[in-house]
Amino acid sequence: MYDMKNLKKLKSLEANAPEAMKAFWAFDKAAMAAGAIPVKYKELMALSVAFTTQCPYCIEIHAGKAREAGATEQEIAEVVALSAALRAGAAITHGSHAMKQL
Predict the structure, then answer these.
(1) Which residues 6+ apart lie within 8 Å of 70 measured at CB?
(2) What CA–CA distance (Å, rounded) separates 39 from 66?
(3) Which residue, 45, 56, 61, 82, could crosslink 2 as a Cys pair with Cβ 3.0–4.6 Å?
(4) pLDDT tens digits, residue range 24-79?
């Protein structure tokens, strides 16, 4: 199901919803561009989000782009740990909703 070749099908989205996809790509490009936050850090953040949303496409794309932007294996490993902590932390804090007093 998660084959990188599927991303070629984005052309179909672009053909059938051209204005929306044009706007999406422009927004994506602007969001990922260097600014107050350098590209390397944006790619590491994107990679963390990809781990927590468990999107294999985003993991592959942003891992590659993070490396291209100069991210090290140690930085990527720390992002993995950070993402795991945040995902687990969300389960703990959301668990408080189950702990209602009778």
Answers:
(1) 40
(2) 8
(3) 56
(4) 999 999 999 999 999 999 999 999 999 999 999 999 999 999 999 999 999 999 99
Sequence spans of domains, the chain: 35-102
Hey, what CATH class is 35-102 in? mainly alpha
Tokens 């204005």 appear where?
19
Q: Enter the DSSP assignment of 9.
A: G
C-alpha 49/C-alpha 13 separation (Å) is: 23
How far apart are the C-alpha atoms of 91 and 40, rounded to whole Å?
29
The predicted model gives 11-35 an average pLDDT of 97
User: In which band, very low, low, confident or very high, does the pLDDT at 102 lie, cut at 50, 70 and 90?
Assistant: low
Q: Which two tokens stand for residue 83?
A: 């993402």
